[in-house]
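Can anyone check this?
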Amino acid sequence: MRAALAVGVPAAQVYPQSTHASAAHPTEVRIAFDGDAVLFSDEAEQVYQSQGLNAFQQHETDKAALPLPDGPFKPLLVALHRLQQAASPAMRIRTALVTARSAPAHERAIRTLMDWNIEIDEAMFLGGLDKGEFCGV
């Protein structure tokens, strides 16, 4: 994934058997997305990397009403949203946003999804906690 991202190509990791959900929900396809640099651009992540957490939080507070620019996986989320709307009872698609963001930066992520007219099934704002634990991997 890192090599693909380094050359500007979106990358993903597929886990065909989630340790927690596969047996309990055999007719569901569950897809979790990270936020910054995945669904959304890396604009906010660049602020965090170059100026630190306080600057990131201030940046996101100042821009809370402005949707984040698109990230490389937004087209996939849009396509999945369309499939969800035309879903068959035999196979259900569930989408989730799993991000290190927390208050106050969560507001901009939520407003961005609303601006895109995209509904997701779950949103987890982890405030820096390990995402793997929440994704069942």
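Reply from J.R.: I decoded it. The mean pLDDT is 82.
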